[in-house]
Amino acid sequence: MKGRIDFYNSYEDEHKIFNNNIKRFWALIGLTFSVYLLVTVNDLWLFLLTYAMLTSIGAWGLNIVSGFAGQISLAHGAFIGVGTYTAFVLGGKVSSNVLSFDLDMAIWLPLAGLVPMAFGFLISPVTSKLKGLNLGLFSIGVVYFALHIFQNLTTITGGSGLGRKSPDFILFGFNFEEGLNLFNFYLDEKDLIALFSLFILVLSGIGVKNLTRTKIGRAYFSIRDRDIAAEAIGVDLLKYKATAYGLASFYAGICGALMFSFTGGVEPNQFNFVYSVLFIAIVIIGGAGTVLGPLFGSFFFILMPTVIEEIIHYFGLFEGSVSFNLAQIERVIFGFFIILFLIFEPRGLWGIWFRLRNYFKAWPFSY
Fold first, then answer.
1. How many angstroms separate the Cα of 55 from the Cα of each of 34, 52, 304?
2. How do 164-165 and 265-266 pair as beta strands?
3. What local confidence, expressed as pLDDT, does residue 345 receive?
4. Whole-number Å distance between alpha carbons of 87 and 102
5. Confidence at residue 170, expressed as pLDDT on a 0 to 100 scale
6. CA distance 268 to 291
7. pTM score, two decimals?
8. What mean pLDDT is predicted for residues 93-111?
9. Which of 137, 257, 269, 276 has the highest CB neighbour number within 10 Å of its CB?
10. Can you state the percent helix, strand and coil of the chain, rounding each to 5?
């Protein structure tokens, strides 16, 4: 029985993240391939892959509160904004126009997560007592309240239509702009940011996976499935709903801080209601309530428009179209994919992955 892959002697062994050698092997292969891909692709795909990794962190945050705990949150973009401006204020270069402290990333990155987390806990007494439509309306109100603050607090955000530049990637005194020579292989700033984003992505993913294996994660699932029954068996609804919003806000802040520092700047109107809805779409496409779903959804959402564009150019499709331009055609095709997922695959891309994985695990048998 010792050599059997799915035979475990304890509950702890069964619920390890990599509970057998096959999973450890493929995890190592996946990590090695990811590093190789990031240092070999061209600048366009490097940008897209880095952006997709950072988007995944924010999508994981929304998945914690909505997919795990079952709470409606339409204010995710606002918390991303709070994290972004926390990083920009603490890490931005000192200027007479906007408030900046020019601190190291080792300081501003953790605080970019902790400050939105504090705001998440601040509104939790209200969000924990609401549910359904009322909770959705309240979160929409949070979005517009935050957007108004961002637009008018010019000393922090730079003001609507202007924005402000991002802080530099300087970690423990090392500036990513200088590049790094590693074993006679030169890594420039873009490569270093991509590899650092991969590192943060792995840490974030391990954090989400560990959450599902803890008492807190099981409490989230019970609240999502039936909050009244969860309360009846002793789950503190107010406590766990508050922690769900706090953790989601922490992930949102880290996402915003790194994403907009990577892109070079941000304008307050970025954090509108539509921006929050985009993250909801990402979670739905990937698979709500799963660990890998937001990761799949983020890469699909970020990479698919470029893939569609490449296919259109390669085959010369729609070249004579007058009614639609290329960007509109991309949106139509992407929207079509979303509709197909909602109708035919409610579990999203994770559902497709789940069936494929089980098929090959059982192959050549069909059961």
1. 16, 5, 14
2. antiparallel
3. 82
4. 10
5. 94
6. 30
7. 0.92
8. 90
9. 257
10. 70, 5, 25
Residue 21 is encoded by which pair of tokens?
A: 């050698």
Locate tokens 């509970």: which residue? 19
User: Which distant-in-sequence residues (6+ apart) come within 8 Å of 338 by Cβ?
Assistant: 281, 284, 285
The domain limits of the chain are 25-270
Query: pLDDT at position 344, please?
Result: 83
C-alpha–C-alpha distance, residues 75 and 138, integer Å: 9
Both structure tokens of 89: 């204020």
- CA within 13 Å, CB half, 165: 9
Amino acid residing at 351 = G
Q: pLDDT tens digits for 185-218? A: 889 999 999 999 999 999 999 999 999 989 999 9
Query: What single-letter amino acid sits at 85?
Result: Y
Residue with tokens 């915003």, as numbered in its chain: 256
Strand partners, 185: 182
| Token pair listed for 236 | 């503190």
The 10s digit of each residue's pLDDT in 73-90 is: 999 999 999 999 999 999
With 80 as the cut, is the pLDDT of residue 361 above it?
no
Statement: residue 343 has pLDDT above 90: no
State the Cα angle at 302 between 301 and 307, rounded to 5°.
95
